[in-house]
Amino acid sequence: MDRILVGLKRVIDYNVRVQVKSDGTGVETDGVKMSINPFDEIALEEALRIKERGEANEVIAVSIGTSEAQQQLRTGLAMGADRAILVTADGYLDPLSVSRIFLSLAEKENAGLVMLGKQAIDGDNSQIAQMLAALWGRPQATFASGVTLDGDTARVVREIDAGLETVEVDLPAVISVDLRLNEPRYVKLPDIMKAKKKPLDEVALADLGIEAGPEVKELSYAPPEARQRGVMVEDVAGLVAALKDKGLA
Amino acid sequence: MAKVLIVAEHDGKTLNPSTAKCVACAASIDGAEIDIVVLAAAVGDIAAQAAEIAGVSRVLTVERAENEYPISAILAPQIAALAGDHTHVFGPSTTFGKDLMPHVAALLGVNQVSDIMSVESSHSFKRPVYAGNAIVTVEVAEGSVVVATVRVASYQAAAGGNSAAVEAASADVALPTHTRFVGLESGASDRPDLQTATSVVSGGRALGSEEDFDLIYKLADALNAGVGASRAAVDAGYCPNDMQVGQTGKIIAPDLYIAIGISGAIQHMTGIKDAGTIVAINKDEEAPIFEVADIGLVADLFKVVPELTSALS
Ligand SMILES: Cc1cc2nc3c(=O)[nH]c(=O)nc-3n(C[C@H](O)[C@H](O)[C@H](O)COP(=O)(O)OP(=O)(O)OC[C@H]3O[C@@H](n4cnc5c(N)ncnc54)[C@H](O)[C@@H]3O)c2cc1C
Q1: CATH code of the domain covering residue A174
Q2: pTM of the predicted protein model
Q3: N or C terminus of chain A: which is more exposed, having fewer CB within 10 Å?
Q4: Residues B95, A160: C-beta atoms closer than 8 Å
Q5: DSSP single-letter state for residue A80
Q6: What pLDDT digit, counting tens, does each position of B11-56 carry?
Q7: B184/A235 CB distance under 8 A
Q8: Are B51 and B21 in contact (CB under 8 A)?
């Protein structure tokens, strides 16, 4: 296979306790730490391992968003991606539009694999890989916890509710990855220096000629209903009594 | 008027309870007419179970050898073809529905609403984002078909007792052969299913080994409960992946949830937000799980879990 395309989304870091803005227009992002979506980092790691095994020639990291996403792409380049593409777009983009952007890049770059996280931890939508596969007319293997390539096919182990499912797909294909697929490598300082010289191309969304998907409009944000702290019991007898009180034992 | 098509989830023989939960969600849309579509290699038993769900008008069936396994690239074109005059197409937000429904949405040229937790109007819904740290109200344009997954933990299964009409439907579309089912390694056990059990006992990293995770199974058996786990316990190999509860595992709503040796990370807690009573056993009184637990016990699990098991046996 020639190329693997990997999506890297810039999201609020998973350690941040996300707060809804008081006016309900969204969540606080001012001064909040931003990172690569953790699932996307795993997708990149897997792509790099495939390349290191000699099964692909080039790994291209792609992000869609404002120029701030350069930061995440530089991290991706430092991890080992060969080059990066930033599709510059302001504001919210719906999943169908994002999928159309990936389709356009997958075709242009003649990708053998597109690897994405199974969901982004901001919108928690879990849609892009499936939509891209539909638009591209190529296989999708979502929630991957194992990927092996064999010539023109890939075997993917999927984490599903019933257990571990294995599917075989013809390439090119779209794979979305789950947390247990691998542990992403740490970036070392010399890699960060090297990454500065790697190509990072910017393409304006308007130049791709993408038609936006019909909108799912976000009307308002609210914090979830909070659960209240309950009672503490001293010992097992107290716990059993408390359960009996609630009719649970 | 709303006309909802629900995609049935099943394992080839039995209808998954997630389908009746999708019906409950659809029924909360004013005046909705509800159809279920069953795609299978042998539809008979599954369609009969679907026809029993209260509130269902028709069960449409597509019996094709290709539908033996739930491969989205095969199912989605058939569903898109059958969507017809339906205003809504719903599936469950289980791994089955999450894999399938966005594919359907893309074929229909629309975005998907993921994880509906409540219906505000026929085109407006509430859904969780940021691991449940925020709830957003979204609106789909009138006149656009609504493709959505239903957060099954937010709904009680619709009742039974119905006998809806079962009709064979034809979805005459070309199906790809580029995706092939190889096998399923199932963690199935005789214990109650994690997603539908009324009580669940979960173990975390503190269990320390696969052998000691047995303490969790024993307590679960004493309560006739399902068994869950934190991501840390699954990652460490103490138990199978299908037991993981949380943002990236299963979202559940049992009446009783007992968390043992689990710290209460936000990604875990989002999976049990709708549980009735949360019990936490943790040796660290500062553990975040105590902030949301209804009943807390600060103790060494290796001492108190066997005691609790015998007290409840
Ligand atoms: C993108 C992303 C998604 C994630 N998704 C999930 C998910 O779906 N589900 C999930 O669970 N996690 C998820 N996580 C991981 C999550 O952040 C936590 O790391 C994980 O839940 C911790 O598991 P734990 O509570 O078992 O372990 P720890 O946090 O290590 O907690 C162990 C607890 O056991 C207690 N303890 C230790 N010894 C004893 C003893 N002898 N007796 C009693 N108590 C004891 C300790 O006090 C501690 O509170 C996700 C993380 C990321 C980044």
Answers
A1: 3.40.50.620
A2: 0.95
A3: C
A4: yes
A5: T
A6: 999 999 999 999 999 999 999 999 999 999 999 999 999 999 999 9
A7: no
A8: no
Task: Give Cα A73 distance to the centre of its chain.
Answer: 13
The residue of chain A with its CA nearest to that of B77 is A134
Domain residue limits at A226: 3-245
Whether residue A209 has pLDDT greater than 90:
no
Average pLDDT over residues A23-33: 95
The answer on pLDDT for B260 being more than 80 is yes
A69 pLDDT more than 80: yes
| Interval between CA A169 and ligand 1 midpoint (Å) | 34
Q: Which amino acid is at B308?
A: L
Could you identify the atom of ligand 1 that is nearest to the CA of residue B204? Answer: 26
b/e per residue, A57-88, with b = 16+ CB within 10 A? ebbbbbbbbeeebbebbbbbbbbbbbbbbbbb
> Identity (one letter) of the amino acid at B45?
D
Q: Taking CB atoms and an 8 Å limit, are B134 and A224 in contact across chains?
A: yes
Instruction: Answer yes or no: is pLDDT of A2 > 80.
Output: yes
- For ligand 1, which residues put their CB under 6 angstroms from it? A 14, 38, 121; B 204-206, 230-233, 244-249, 261-263, 265, 267-268, 271, 282-284, 287, 300-302
Question: Does the pLDDT value for residue A211 go beyond 90?
Answer: no
Residue environment code for A97-134, b if the CB has 16+ CB neighbours within 10 A, otherwise e? bbbbbbbbbbeebebbbbbbbbbbbbbbbbbbbbbbbb
List of domains in chain B = 3-168 (3.40.50.620), 199-312 (3.40.50.1220)
| Alpha-carbon dihedral angle through residues B301, B303, B306, B312, given to the nearest 10 degrees | -80
Distance (Å) from the C-alpha of residue A88 to the closest C-alpha of chain B? 21
Distance in angstroms (rounded) separating the CA atoms of residues B168 and B63: 8
Whole-angstrom distance, CA of residue A121 vs CA of residue A6: 17
Which of B141, B187, B290 lies closest to A214 in CB terms? B141
